[in-house]
Known about the structure:
Ald_DH_C; Aldehyde dehydrogenase family protein; Aldehyde_DH_dom; Ald_DH_N; 22 strands
Amino acid sequence: MSRFEYAPAPESRAIVDIKSSYGLFVNGQFVEATDGKPFKTVSPASEEVLAEVSEAGPADVDKAVRAARKAYDKVWGPMSGKDRAKYLFRIARLIQERARELAVLESLDNGKPIRESRDVDIPLVAAHFFYYAGWADKLEYAGVGDDPQPWGVAGQVIPWNFPMLMLAWKIAPALAAGNTVVLKPAETTPLTALAFAEICQQADLPPGVVNIVTGAGRTGQALVEHPDVNKVAFTGSTAVGRAIAKSVAGTHKAVTLELGGKAANIVFEDAAIDQTIEGIVNGIFFNQGHVCCAGSRLLVQESVYDEVLARLKRRMSTLRVGDPLDKNTDIGAINSAAQLAKIRELSQIGEDEGAERWSPECELPAHGYWFPPTIFTGVSQAHRIAREEIFGPVLSVLTFRTPAEAVEKANNTPFGLSAGIWTEKGSRILWMANQLRAGVVWANTFNRFDPTSPFGGYKESGYGREGGRHGLEAYLAH
Length: 478
């Protein structure tokens, strides 16, 4: 049979107007930093410098927190829920209006395929603001008492893997509950957060309700440890989450932590194989594996192991790695040189420890940060690649014989964020879901998100929930 020739379908960069430099967003205005050095944000697909961004030092963070406190005391806290809802709804509509621009900007700054930014990330961002706009005047039904009150000023630190979506997860429920916000985006992906600051201006959001301070670890630490921050929300690595938990211990601050994962994707012999293969691919190669709940451990029942592995390899051979702005791209660029080095290191360790490595033939671009989709077979539970979060497009494959063995292997991890089950038996799905120590369990699908559903983990995957009524509850004093 003849095959169609590949033809690039690039999205235009012209829709995005990236400024040469950006300040901090404090009290409704972009301002210059006073005690930090500027840094550059680069496109991981080309290593091109996109913009110079201000670094917020402790004095800048203090100004942002004071602006948030004033806005909380004078405007946002006293405002009715009905009026707060109007602002959230307006923000959601502006996100929809600027969706194409935001998707291109996200792919440029992050490296993820435009198809994911356009079809998943940005629509979910708008959906979260619409959803929490509906909650803003119904807080007494959130399950925390008849007269729930906001915490006050929320300090929020988000990661680089879903920059705009994590912003929505944090800011939308915080504002709906009546809090004001100081948010620090990741240093490698600040541009969509700064675009969101412009949207806040467009929406005429009162000054100080949302503040954006850019920078690296020093900025985040200053925000988390600021004495006038009432609520801390963090998504990122378990190591940083531990440090945050220690720093706020003994203080008045409320905390939610959404940390790392090492999810098991469990395939039983009666699973619909074609559907399952798509779920496996989506579970680990979506967003280059830069997903805290990625299905990075594949557990396959022995009786179908050979068939699943053969079909998985065939499907992986069709994945296209390349330009994130090409609408045909399946796997984009690794977010940074540091993350690429970590993926390479752990993959080499996997080989050194005796696992068998396989990747389909694919030509990687000459510039930028790239890693091919990779699977390891012959993996034991003692291997580091089966225990540590790689946060890249790397899948470890293990086997099991019985449901009990699958549960034991799936739970044999310090993490507990998510899991997937593939079977046609509803009773088995329910039994497995009750046995698995994971905050989110998907059945015959993977990486499905909805603003109405809570998300979060157990053990070293953190505590607290985001999304749904539970995510709103985290921003209300009990």
